[in-house]
Amino acid sequence: MKRRICFLLVLMALLSCFSVNAFAVESVFEHSKTVNEGQRVENVFLYGEDGIISGFVTDDVVVINGNLNLTSTARVNGAVFLLGGELTQEPGAQVRKGFFHINLTNKNLNSLLLGVGAFGLIELAKMFLALLILLISLASLFVFKNRVKKAKLMLQSNTQKVGLMGLFATIGLGLIFAALTVTIWGIPVAVLLGLILLILLSVGLGALSSIIGELLLKSFDWGQKPYYQVLIGSLFLVAFLNFPALGILWGILVFIFATGALAASLLPGKVNSDA
After folding, report:
1. Pair 240, 247: CB distance under 8 Å
2. Are the CB atoms for 211 and 234 separated by under 8 Å?
3. Which residues, in sequence order, are CB contacts of 8 under 8 Å at separation 6+?
4. What is the average per-residue pLDDT within 140-148?
5. Pairing state of beta strands 44-47 and 22-24?
6. Which of 25, 112, 226, 240 has a CA that sits 20 to 30 A from residue 85's CA?
7. pLDDT at 174 over 80
8. Is the Cβ–Cβ distance between 61 and 67 less than 8 Å?
9. How far apart are the first and last CA of the chain?
10. Residue 124 neighbours by CB under 8 Å, 6+ apart
């Protein structure tokens, strides 16, 4: 249940950022908001719209800022999550794992609740991202020490080349992930590749953090230690991500150069620091 509630809260944040009216797995609805009797779907997600379920749902039903009607033939094998709307359940309707229903009986209050929840989740996501960047940057000094040194030298001596490598690699990765997420079997592969990329990307983030930290701490004797450089540099990277508009552009640039630094560290041969 805790896992489902967390999933619901994350969904609230995403839906607050994007204008989404209705969505169902495998596009069963096709812009309709009804699961007809005899129809079978995997999940149901509705935002700002009402839903009528007369068929079978194999997992969960989520309705945010909308009403939900479960007719007598409705069968929900998972749970029903309803935020900011009215629930109508006819006799005979079955929900296997129960209900999670919040309704403040006032649309303004409901919208306020969703807005505050979305804002809180966004802030928590920022904190998690900051902590993640900090930890994987520091971890790279222990796990990929030589790779980080090589990536740092490449960034310092061939910044333009590393940036182009990162740009092309980012475009290529985007196309690969887009192709994988089209099919059901490709989604687990995409998740696995994403985790591997996240681990390897620590090389590029460590190199970027080290360069920035070295520049910021060049006037301090203790600032010449790699750990302090990566720590201060990663905090600098994270700080700029919090800017409303420029933070997105900064994040894209960081990802591109971190990816390029990772690609450069995987190239054969040694790098001449005087190049």
Report:
1. yes
2. no
3. 62, 81, 83, 100
4. 83
5. antiparallel
6. 25
7. yes
8. no
9. 57
10. none
pLDDT at 200 over 50: yes
Q: Residue 269: what pLDDT? A: 63
* Cα dihedral: 252, 164, 148, 223 (round 10): -70
Residue 252's pLDDT band, with cuts at 50, 70 and 90, is: confident
CB atoms within 10 A of CB 117: 16
Residue at token pair 């089209």:
182
Residue 237's identity, in one-letter code, is: L
b/e map 71-89, b = 16+ CB within 10 Å: bebbbbebbbbbbbbeeeb
Buried b (16+ CB within 10 A) or exposed e, 183-210: eeebeeebeeeeeeeeebbbbbbbbbbb
Residue 127 has what pLDDT? 75
Is residue 151 within 8 A of residue 140, CB to CB? The reply is no
pLDDT tens by residue, 100-125 = 777 655 555 656 666 677 777 776 77
Closest CA to 258 of 233, 239, 275: 233
Count of other CB atoms within 10 angstroms of residue 150 = 21
Q: Region of 60 please: left (phi>0), alpha (psi -120 to 50) or beta.
A: beta
Please tell me the distance from the alpha carbon of residue 65 to that of residue 243, in angstroms, as a whole number. Answer: 30
The CA distance from 123 to 107, in Å, is 24
**Are residues 73 and 100 in contact, defined by beta-carbon separation less than 8 angstroms?**
no
pLDDT of residue 111: 64
Which residue, among 88, 12, 79, 74, has the nearest Cα to 48 in the 3D structure?
12
Report the alpha-carbon distance of residue 168 to residue 148 in Å, rounded: 21
Read off the pLDDT of residues 17-57 as tens digits, 9 standing for 90 and up.
433 333 344 333 433 478 888 898 988 888 878 889 999 99
